Amino acid sequence: MxxxxxxxxxxxxxxxxxxxxxxxxxxxxxxxxxLLSACGSSGSSSSDSKTVSLGSNSSDAVPKKAFAxxxxxxxxxxxxxxxxxxxxxxTFQEQINSYLQGTPDDVFTWFAGYRMQFFAAKNLASPxxxxxxxxxxxxxxxxxxxxxxxxxxxxxxxxxxxxxxLFYRKSVFQQHGYEIPTTWDQLVALCKxxxxxxxxxxxxxxxxxxxxxxxxxxxxxxxxxxxxHKSLMAGKESWTDPKVKAVFDHWSELLPYHxxxxxxxxxxxxxxxxxxxxxxMYLLGTFVAQQFTNxxxxxxxxxxxxPEMNSAFGQDTVEAxxxxxxxxxxxxxxxxxxxxxxxxxxxxxxxxYLKADSSVVAASSKADTSSYTPLQKKAYxxxxxxxxxxxxxxxxxxxxxxxxxxxxxxxxxxQNPKGIDNLLTSIERQKKQIFASS
Length: 438
Fold this sequence. Notes:
Blueprint: E1 2-3, E2 9-10, H1 15-18, E3 51-56, H2 61-78, E4 81-86, H3 89-101, E5 107-111, H4 114-121, H5 129-135, H6 141-146, E6 157-161, E7 164-169, H7 170-176, H8 184-196, E8 200-203, H9 211-233, H10 242-254, H11 267-275, E9 279-285, H12 295-300, E10 301-304, E11 317-319, E12 322-327, H13 334-344, H14 347-356, E13 361-362, H15 374-384, E14 388-390, H16 393-396, H17 399-415, H18 420-436
Helix pairs in contact: 2-13, 2-14, 5-13, 9-10, 17-18
């Protein structure tokens, strides 16, 4: 079950809703009825030069309030009102394709990476190079790269992000004298030692089918590099390539050290084994910290980057899903939308958001980090120091491919690693069919 910001149990588990709106696993074109509609279609005057309409997927209480404060600050500064059209997070994702092809709001919340590029390539979003002339100095190069379409133009303003890494309890490592592994061989050796010491080396739950994608990503870009990983996710490489087979061969080496029974365990349940010191490590995003509700436990939580596997690539890639904003194809108030996007790209806007949500970090390299927790500071350093940033498999690739092919495919591998050759042949066949479609 998910935990809402208020701590209530909610159905439909996903790491994104737990992270208060970071990401989503629904299909881009998953719905035939355009339930989403622009604010302007419901009677508001989005064509008014003093009003910008904004479609938002931030339906949970914490981000909704944080965004409202950002928009209020923008209105106070410019006199331009932001007319917000908030929809349930998953509904927004499911209906986004129909929404953008209809009469969308001037600005809308979305995700960096392939999902942004997908709509840019279909001319369902406006390029915002003029905005980036104003805000470019606020962001590191990796964030700039994430915000561009395949045509090299800017389409996205990032607001916040968070890294994936290997989490552990400092006291457990101190108790057993463990050292942080920086190479693959050291990681495998540490897993063996943890097993001898009676620990579950790697906590793991894949009931919801998405966590395993994070493990694939880490091994692939560590072994084969950022460029190959991005190209593979974009459907431009073959899944039967020996480089891909090598990813699964390495993963097979780690599987004996993964927590048993993972198919029936959510990520939250797996996190509890790290909380209770029954597991030594856990590969996940920083949202794992939300399971550490006791301050002493939270203070004991730390993380390290996935170890180097190929000296040509080192640890220069970080998986850091990033959320922000885009402008629709034909905004009614283009001038107002431009001003809003420029404001959303300021450290001021980011700091307003971060006051309300400590599970994420600023995308800007100029945001004030003085109020960050130690975990946030470390996350910020990891992301800002990365040469390249990835977004997570279901953001870096077509969502229909990741949900219908990769999620069940990775679960088949986890349950039968020896059947990998047939599985990769099947994945490649399905990939060709899906990427050939519009």
